[in-house]
Automatic annotation (TrEMBL), chain A:
It is found in: Membrane. GO terms for cellular component: membrane. InterPro entries: Cyt_c_oxase-like_su1_dom (IPR023616), Cyt_c_oxase-like_su1_sf (IPR036927), Cyt_C_Oxase_1 (IPR000883), Cyt_c_Oxase_su1_BS (IPR023615). The keyword Electron transport applies. Its main location: membrane. This is Cbb3-type cytochrome c oxidase subunit I. The chain crosses the membrane at residues 37-58, 78-100, 121-140, 160-183, 203-228, 248-271, 283-304, 319-341, 353-378, 393-413, 425-448, 468-489.
UniProtKB/TrEMBL annotation, chain B:
The keyword Transmembrane helix applies. Belongs to the cytochrome c oxidase subunit 3 family. Residues 1-208 form the Heme-copper oxidase subunit III family profile domain. GO terms for cellular component: plasma membrane. One of its GO terms (biological process) is aerobic electron transport chain. Keywords: Membrane, Transmembrane, Transmembrane helix. It is found in: Cell membrane; Membrane. GO terms for molecular function: cytochrome-c oxidase activity. It is a multi-pass membrane protein. The chain crosses the membrane at residues 21-44, 64-85, 92-109, 139-167, 188-207. This is Cytochrome c oxidase subunit 3 family protein. It comes from Draconibacterium aestuarii. The lineage of its organism: Bacteria, Pseudomonadati, Bacteroidota, Bacteroidia, Marinilabiliales. Gene3D superfamilies: Cytochrome c oxidase, subunit III, four-helix bundle. PROSITE patterns: COX3.
Length: 537, 208
């Protein structure tokens, strides 16, 4: 019996199970260990993606060839896109913080299917290996852009097949994670954890999981069709054989538009945890946030056509897609108002996660409002396929998901590692990173409005000034990233031991030791009438 | 002590309800996977009604109908195996799953011959015969025919593998009346494979 309590008391990082060392990690079905496996894999892929982005910005420092030719530039933005979309932001928050925290937040011992959870990570790694193999072997690195648009995707001589297959496998990994989370949230909530007491991060994971489940298969089959087109020439997307390449775009965006909500919803969820914690106040409009989450998940399915205004679509269809695009902006705005109202008259405790959360709101708003410029039919024709689109996209996906990821990282870090990071270095990292981010992407709005097209390694001399600022911004941002990363890595090993609840948060993960024990809870938690995720005095 | 350590690492979380929800969610994803193809089919059928009519005549309705019937029977046998398991009749359960398994093999054999005849006539995706002699609509029809029935056949194979595991599970007692999820899910999956065929059969063979 003595051993039992010792084993139960051990935290998940120190715990010595059946296997030792590395095997103890890659064979572990503990959701927390799997979450960390994801964190390290995603951080690695993110760093590679950042280096590729840095190389692209360096190329654009001056007109003409700076460090790479057109073909290399095309390959670079393709690989940057594939890595950042399929390997970083889509799995990002759900796979890392969903795995690490969600079961504890609902008072469960683990996810519903722990082995399937580990399988999802294996599939993730397999997908990564496949895509990387496309870069190393065959006749050149894929150069289609991350969208794999037909007919170029089966005409290009580059080694696209492994990349497509890799994206398919990554999609499968995403589906299985979504499935696992849905069942977990339905079945494993602790007694008293009613749907109206679920932390908002869990709610957003729930909405995200439905999108993962229902949208990913469509892109899966589309990628299979492109692969078959390349292998056999079935003709489905080949105009020479009667196929329709625009149909490819429809199928692709039926997934890939909801996918941006896979990226952003959990980010909104993490922000909805952080804002009330550091405002020390109940979240404003809890049910409105849930409703907006679910309506984003639902309406997000019906707006894919706004990626295709200039591709050839009937005027009527364009009107509907534009209208729906404006409608889907409303729930996001509701969330922003709720976060700001939560801060109002709160007792704000300014800490690093709060800096990240507030800057998230700012960049997300800029990204969201510029999205309306693209969602409106007339203005879209003007800025379509310019640097404006790149700026909007990075403000939303990097400014949104990326900032929320860093916010979540600094928020849950003491829980994950049981150690606190150096707060002043963390704040400096945030400041440098944010300045770099704004300098990097803001000029692109201007350049796009002036007519600089995206996806070219070259540009006209009049765009030089904006590009210099943008490239300088990329260096500042990477400096910030290095500061953040160094601080976190160092603190994970040598930081001050963290308390159980350093931020005085009310959700369940802060009621267990830092780092959490192997089975999360000594005794299964029960939520009483007055308990709740945001019940501050 | 070893036993106990093992227990801590893998808490027994068996919950038949969870397994069932999980399987249904997986079935949704499969439906959407095929949904993409049905969408492509309907667009191209709308664009090429005559060519789809001409091409569909070439398919062998007899083999198609035979495969439909045996697949429906196999759905029945696997449903019966679930009931047999509930009643604790282990041998009957195994027998019924084995019958389902064999019917699945039979379906694939028929498919093999059906595709073989097409190949003999020079009909396969990207063949010169098709590009020279057929209209674009017919090429699309056969492209979709091979992709959709091929993907369906792949699902049959996956179903057979799953049934293989179910048979082993029932035989060694890991799948039993108290823990029937594995067999039930194999059954659900097999019904899905059957259901998709129920749509493929009229779309390719009957609507001419």
């Amino acid at each position: 019996m003595h051993t039992t309590s010792a084993v139960n008391g051990a935290n998940y990082l120190a715990y010595q199970g059946k296997y030792k060392g590395l095997l103890g990690w890659i064979l572990s079905t503990d959701h927390k260990r799997i979450g960390l496996l994801y964190l390290y894999s995603i951080a690695t892929m993110f760093s590679i993606g950042v280096l590729l982005g840095l190389a692209m910005k360096f190329e654009l420092l001056a007109p003409g060839k700076t460090i790479m030719d057109a073909q290399t530039y095309n390959a670079t933005f393709t690989v940057h896109g594939v890595i950042m979309i399929f390997m970083v932001v889509v799995p990002g928050l759900p796979a890392v913080f969903g795995n690490l925290m969600m079961p504890i937040m609902i008072g469960a011992k683990d996810v519903a299917f722990p082995k399937l959870n580990l399988l999802s990570w294996y599939l993730y790694v397999a997908g990564v290996v496949l895509v990387i193999s496309a870069l190393i072997f065959g006749n050149g690195t894929p150069d289609t852009g991350w969208t794999f648009y037909a007919p170029y995707s089966f005409k290009t001589g580059t080694n696209l097949l492994p990349a497509i297959f890799g994206a398919f496998v990554l999609g499968f990994s995403s589906i299985l994670t979504g499935l696992n989370f849905l069942v977990t949230i339905h079945r494993l909530r602790c007694p008293g954890m009613k749907w109206t007491k679920l932390p908002l991060f869990v709610w957003t994971l729930y909405g995200t999981a439905w999108i993962q489940l229902l949208a990913t298969p469509v892109v899966g089959i589309t990628l299979v069709l492109v692969a078959l087109e390349r292998l056999f020439g079935v003709g489905i997307f080949d105009p020479a054989l009667g196929g329709d390449p625009i149909l490819y775009q429809h199928l692709f965006w039926i997934y890939s538009h909801p996918a941006v909500y896979i990226m952003i919803l959990p980010a909104m969820g993490a922000i909805s945890e952080i804002i009330p914690t550091f405002s020390q106040k109940h979240i404003f409009g809890y049910k409105a946030i849930i409703a907006s989450t679910l309506s984003i998940a639902f309406v997000g399915y019906l707006v894919w056509g706004h990626h295709m205004y200039t591709a050839g679509m009937s005027g009527t269809a364009q009107y509907y897609f534009s209208l729906l695009t404006f409608i889907v902006a409303i729930p996001s705005a509701i969330k922003v108002f709720n976060w700001i109202s939560t801060m109002y008259k709160g007792s704000i405790n300014i800490q690093t996660p709060f800096y990240w959360a507030v800057s998230f709101i700012f960049v997300f708003m800029v990204g969201g409002l510029s999205g309306l410029v693209l969602g409106a039919l007339a203005t879209d024709i003007y800025v379509h396929d310019t640097a404006f689109v790149v700026a909007h996209f990075h403000y939303i996906v990097f400014g949104g998901t990326g900032f929320a990821f860093f916010a979540a990282m600094h928020y849950w870090f003491p829980k994950i590692y049981g150690r606190m990071y150096d707060k002043s270095w963390a704040n400096i990292g945030w400041l440098v990173f944010t300045i770099g981010f704004l300098a990097l992407y803001s000029p692109m709005f201007y350049l796009g409005m002036m007519g600089m097209p995206r996806r070219y390694y070259d540009y006209l001399p009049e765009f030089h000034g904006g590009n210099i600022l943008s490239t300088f911004g990329s260096w500042i941002m990477v400096t910030g990233f290095v500061i953040i990363l160094t601080n976190l890595i160092r603190s994970a090993k040598k930081g001050e031991p963290a308390e159980m609840n350093p931020w005085k948060s009310k959700t369940l993960e802060w009621t267990v030791t830092s780092p959490p024990p192997v089975l999360n809870f000594e005794i299964e938690p029960v939520l009483g009438e007055k308990d709740g995720p945001y019940n501050y005095e | 002590m070893e036993e106990h350590v093992h227990h801590v690492e893998h808490p027994d979380m068996y919950d038949p309800e969870s397994s069932k929800i999980g399987m249904w969610l997986f079935i949704f994803t499969e439906l959407l996977l095929f949904g993409g193809l049905f969408l492509v089919y309907s667009v191209y059928r709308y664009m090429n009604p005559d060519a789809f009519h001409m091409a569909a005549v070439e398919l062998n309705t007899t083999i198609g109908a035979f495969n439909t019937v045996i697949l429906l029977v196999s759905s029945m046998t696997i449903a019966m195996s679930t009931s047999a398991l509930q009643k604790g009749q282990k041998n009957l359960t195994i027998g019924l799953v084995v019958i389902t398994f064999l019917i699945g093999i039979g379906f694939l054999v028929n498919k093999w011959f059906e595709w073989g005849v097409k190949f003999d006539h020079g009909i396969w995706p990207g063949s010169e015969h098709m590009i020279e002699n057929m209209s674009q609509g017919e090429i699309l029809f056969f492209g979709l025919y091979f992709v959709m029935t091929g993907l369906h056949a792949l699902h049959i194979i996956v179903g057979l593998v799953v049934m293989g595991f179910a048979i082993r599970g029932v035989a060694n007692g890991k799948v039993n009346p108290d823990r029937p999820s594995m067999l039930e899910n194999a059954g659900l999956y097999w019904h899905l494979v059957d259901l998709i065929w129920i749509f493929l059969f009229p779309l390719f063979y009957l609507i001419t």
